[in-house]
Specification:
Layout (H helix, E strand, L loop, with lengths): L2 E6 L10 H10 L2 E6 L11 H8 L8 E6 L11 H10 L5 E10 L8 H18 L3 E6 L6 H7 L4 H12 L7 E3 L6 H9 L2 E5 L9 H9 L5 E3 L21 H12 L3 H17 L6
Parallel strand pairs: 1-2, 2-3, 3-4, 4-5, 5-6, 6-7, 7-8
Helix pairs in contact: 4-6, 9-10
Length: 286
Amino acid sequence: MTLIDSHSHIDFAQYDDDREAMLRRAHDAGVGAILAIGIGEGPAQMYRAAELAEQYAGRDGFPKIYASVGVHPSEGADVDAAVLERVASIAKSPKVIAIGEIGLDYYHADNPLISVQQRVFVQQMEIAAAAKLPILIHCRTSDAAKPEAKAKYAGADAWADLLDLIEENWSPTGLGGVMHCFSGSTAVAQRSLDAGFLISFAGNITYPSAQGIRDAAAYVSLAHTLIETDAPFLAPVSHRGQRNESAYVGEVAKQLAEIHKCDVGAIGAATSANFARALLAPRGLS
């Protein structure tokens, strides 16, 4: 059985001491490929995911590594013309298969104003359209945020805003993308599917408190599902409190197998096929 970790921050400093060993553990756990998310730890480091994909290309004993590039919504205040030009330039790398993670985040009070986040999101969708690449979406609303964030964002609904912007600026391209680390409702899932997106589930689907995520996973057919770790964050419950890593994506697959009442091999086969269709095919990869 082969699994694909469709969202992992393998370039982050948490792996600087054992990155190679971490990648070997993923390979040994049946992870055939990893999508390294190229937001860096800020826009100045966006290039690192593509660099790692080049570094490990063709090496035995490691997963295949692909990369994305983009600016996370929390970094939107740092975006100027030069940053956008850098995103477009890195996107030309043959190892870059998507733009992201991009989107909206109304959860933290120190994130940029809504107008700034939305402007940067639209600008990056324009880059993705020009590059003919799918997009990887980050969306976090203020519903469960601290009072200061709720006050700052005045009850705005990040999902509603995000999907409105996608339908206006992205859906006409037909390029689709991925709703990363999905935590929305089934209604949001359906609207995302209607917009041509795959829905990706991470380690938090295993948390006892995450019944809403499991309900969404049951609603989304396997033909539109991906699995991910979002490592080093959101370690599955069996590793809770530890640094997450791509080897643990199998725990997400096991949870989905329970939800869909199938074996883990069916999850691996479906999600790998979906990844190839939505993310590799636009680059002519397989």
